[in-house]
Design goal:
Blueprint (H helix, E strand, L loop, with lengths): L3 E12 L2 E12 L3 E5 L6 H8 L7 E6 L2 E3 L4 H6 L2 E4 L11 H5 L1 H6 L7 H12 L16 H13 L5 E5 L7 H16 L3 E5 L3 H7 L2 E6 L2 E7 L5 H9 L18 E10 L2 E9 L3 E5 L6 H9 L6 E6 L2 E3 L4 H7 L1 E4 L3 H5 L6 H5 L8 E3 L2 E2 L1 H14 L16 H13 L5 E5 L7 H16 L3 E5 L3 H7 L2 E6 L2 E7 L5 H8 L2 H7 L1
Length: about 500
């Protein structure tokens, strides 16, 4: 195959008794975008780590341009022309954007002093392709989406022939994602080959040339995108037919208001009013930076000092802290699962009980391990959590199961209202379907469910109503029968507000 730039032959890798890769065969052609799809734990990231020299295979070989190569380290892979943008952001938070982008080049430089002004100028040129980000700002002061763009910019500075992108749009807006796709097409026109890992079928079928499906550490099939369907790919990923990604919507009128917000204002949003009713799932849409998360975090008292009226089940609240919100039954699931959602180095049981230690305590500072285990096991069964036991560390779970642990932690306090910020970001299609069904079940039990999502198909498929935020204000609300991507984007881009203000 003269066009083949990378070939994987019969690669296997085990971690103890777990066989992560089972005789994988895969090829990547010059100038193509080759998608890899599969559930969490299918072996996608393990294979990419083998290609990038992060881990070594137990058997098999890697060929570049038809010649067998060893990949002892990421630095060696980089010298062979391989660039890797990881799903998990791996930037240095306490240095500038420019320093992060050119860190590898700076480390290899023999200059005694760093040319800070030159780095900023070069970084500004690279970033201009993606977003308006100040190269002198510290990375820790950037949003998650802008940090992801810095990771991508960092990869673009490498003289790579093979570019691996692992869920690169998980934290990007639609506009940012489209800019990335345009850049990808320019790169392939120059002969660069791209491996594109994504759970989003729309992205795969709009932008990729071929798609390979992995399941349980095995290569299942490879097809030209034009010769297969999203349904075929999903069914191959999970090994069974998924009838629907979304559960049935509310068919009867919703119950009374669980949560009422009137005239809520802070420096980042103003005059926010809405109701969340029993039995329904309310979606919140808007471009990143519109204020969606800030509003919900303000209600929970996680940040800011919002003023306005908040009523829970008809009773006025005067919350001073998130601890008071939890005590009232109002909880928030962060979009940054690994940063704020779970304690990665603690076992499942300790995570689940973290927000309500009183129910598993024998006294001050004394945890009843039996009670903690029983609580975690009960919620694990309710959420269909897959693990080796509640003593397993959360870091060793798949993304979908980590998200279930984060949900279990909230359910342990028996909440009345749950705010979920990007609840299915970075989880596979099978786990997404399960999480959607869990949320519908909670709504049917009377829990107030509010979902913030940047995935418009998720909002349309899951929610009974969608409230749209733009520039810190509510620009409109759409019932289920009027939900469409066009209607949401019109309100999200503020055209609806401008028309009403005219």
């Amino acid at each position: 195959m003269p066009d083949t730039v990378l070939e994987i032959r019969n690669v296997s890798r085990s971690f103890g008794p777990v066989r992560a890769l089972r005789g994988i065969n895969f090829d990547l052609r010059r100038g193509e975008i080759h998608a890899i799809a599969g559930e969490n734990g299918a072996g996608k990231s393990t294979l990419m780590n083998v290609i990038d020299g992060i881990i070594q295979p137990d058997s098999g070989e890697i060929l570049i341009d038809g010649r067998p190569v060893r990949m002892p380290s990421p630095a060696h892979a980089q010298r062979l022309g391989i660039g890797f943008v990881h799903q998990e952001i791996a930037l240095c938070p306490d240095v500038s954007v420019a320093e992060n982008i050119f860190m590898a080049a700076t480390n290899q430089s023999r200059r005694f002093l760093m040319d800070a002004a030159g780095l900023r100028a070069k970084a500004r040129s690279v970033l201009a392709q993606l977003a308006d980000i100040d190269p002198s700002i510290l990375v820790r002061d950037l949003s998650i989406s802008n940090q992801q763009l810095v990771e991508i910019a960092k990869a673009l500075t490498l003289d790579c022939r093979i570019l691996i992108l692992d869920e690169p749009t998980a934290a990007l807006t639609e506009r940012e994602a489209q800019l990335l796709f345009a850049i990808m097409r320019k790169l392939t026109a120059q002969g660069i080959a791209i491996i594109y890992i994504s759970h989003r079928m729309v992205e795969i079928f709009e932008n990729c040339d071929r798609v390979s499906v992995f399941r349980d550490g095995q290569h299942i099939r490879t097809d030209k995108v034009c010769e297969t369907t999203p349904e075929d790919v999903v069914n191959a990923m999970v090994g069974r037919k998924i009838e629907s990604l979304y559960p049935p919507k509310l068919t009867t009128p919703p119950g009374p208001p669980v949560l009422q917000v009137e005239g809520l204002s802070d420096r980042r949003f103003r005059d926010i009013s809405f109701e969340l009713r029993a039995g329904e799932i309310l979606g919140v849409a808007g471009l990143i930076g519109a204020g969606r998360s800030e509003i919900m975090r303000g209600i929970c008292r996680l940040e800011g000092n919002a003023r306005g009226r908040v009523r829970l089940q008809g009773r006025d609240l005067d919350l001073k802290s998130y601890a008071e919100a939890i005590a009232e039954g109002i909880v928030y699931l962060s979009e940054d699962r690994k940063g704020d959602g779970v304690f990665l180095d603690l076992p499942i049981a300790a995570n689940v009980s973290a927000l309500n230690l009183s129910q598993v305590s024998r006294g001050p500072g004394l945890i009843d391990k039996g009670a903690e285990t029983r609580l975690a096991e009960a919620l694990g069964r309710q959420l269909n959590l897959k693990s080796a036991g509640v003593g397993q560390k959360v870091s060793s779970l798949s993304g979908g199961n980590q998200q279930k642990v984060a949900l279990a932690k909230l359910l342990a306090v028996k909440p009345k209202v749950i705010f979920l910020d990007e609840p299915t970001r970075g989880v596979d299609v099978g786990a997404k379907s399960e999480i959607h069904k869990i949320l519908r079940g909670l709504a049917e039990q009377g829990v107030g469910i509010l979902v913030i999502s940047s995935e418009l198909p998720e909002l349309i498929g899951l929610c009974d109503r969608v409230m749209v935020i733009a520039e810190g204000r509510v620009t409109g609300e759409l019932p289920a029968e009027r939900l469409s991507e066009e209607a949401i984007m019109q309100l999200a881009s503020n055209t609806g507000w401008q028309k009403r203000s005219a």
